[in-house]
Amino acid sequence: MKNIIKKVKSSAIVKNDGKNFLHFFLAFTVIFVALAVIIIQVMQLGMYRATDQNLHNLAQNRVFLEEAANNQFGTSDSQDSGFYGPNNSVIFYDSEGKSFMPSSESNGRISTNFVMSRLQKAMKFNEKQINTIQTVSVKNPYGDNWHYRYLTTSQFIITNSDGTVTPVYVQIFSNVDQIQDAMSRAMWVIVTTMITFWILSVIISLYLANWTLKPILAAYEKQKEFVENASHELRTPLAILQNRLELLFQKPTATIIDESENISESLSEVRNMRLLTSNLLNLARRDSGIKIEPEPTTATYFENIFNSYEMLTENAGKKFSGNLKLEGTVNLDQALIKQLLTILFDNALKYTDSEGEISVDVIKNGGFLTFAVADNGEGISDEDKKKIFDRFFRVDKARTRQKGGLGLGLSLAKQIVEAYNGKITVEDNKPKGTKFIVKIRVDSTISNPAKIFQKL
Questions:
Q1: Is 353 in a helix, a strand, or coil?
Q2: What pTM value is reported for the model?
Q3: 219, 226 contact by CB (below 8 A)
Q4: The domain 219-286: what is its CATH number?
Q5: pLDDT value at 28 more than 50
Q6: Where are the membrane-spanning stretches (predicted)?
């Protein structure tokens, strides 16, 4: 048991499960990180848009700038130099980048606004920031820091008392504490939500990794079962052949007539092996895809098949009836359809006793063609109906082997039907026996009278 568990853990499928999980997990992580960054960027642009537009408008407002200059240079009666309204502040710089605003330590007329003095100490002029909007935080010793968006511009000129002009740089500030608070709360919600969904993506990644492996595991198990069944089917005839040949060597002087039974049984097993290998080859080819090659088909095609079936049932001491209702010409792959019908007919022939009855119906209704193959044999239980199309499945293995069945025919029949995107079902044939029903879609081109084939 420990060896089995060790093999399972070291198998390529289990290792690939970890790789699948990692791929899904990384994919979800990239998606959530990218989504969070995009949302935050868009939110910031949206929240600061009105503030940034106000800064640009103030930079173009000469009346506002002149009032600010008068206040800062001491030519105004206002005692709040550089402070304009609840949110806006202005600092002027000369051509060398020095502030015109007197510091709080000067002996001259100073700003009585505490916020503005803090802002003056925190700011340094940078010519590279002209005409760009920046963000700055000013330390507040009594509480949370103040946050500002500011614009630096050089579009203002001061006229001196002697008539000369001085170009100055202007920094216009707008307080964004409320926006910053809202941004912080929004970012906390976004980050928390993203982390929650990111953790959820771990669970989803595990689920998807397992889900994607289900068909692989199912195919792996079917392949393993197929190989085991094929090996088992080959082992039995090989063992019989070996025993029969060993018996022949034990009697070197015996004639062919004396050992006819051994020779006959050996030939029978060789035929079974040939049939098995042929069916295995057909299954392998069908697994790679069935190519349908349709050709115009009339009722005559099915009548010829019915004639062959009638001869086979008569030789087996049984009865056959065929019902053909086909108007016009349909496009069918005649080789595949014949193989399909023959598999169903051969299955019915094997599982009906002497004097049994077998019927084959071919009916075209609209764009669909329906085949129904029924017998009055022993029937199939409801439990076995679920497995009847599995490879190597046989209802009664001992009896099936006596009849030459390998459990591959119905699997081939199902593959042919699926190639037509059709449907095959099995049900009880009242009052006794089994009925297989196949329904496929076909195209109709020419209209002919319906033909009924009925021989008892």
A1: coil
A2: 0.46
A3: no
A4: 1.10.287.130
A5: yes
A6: 21-43, 186-209
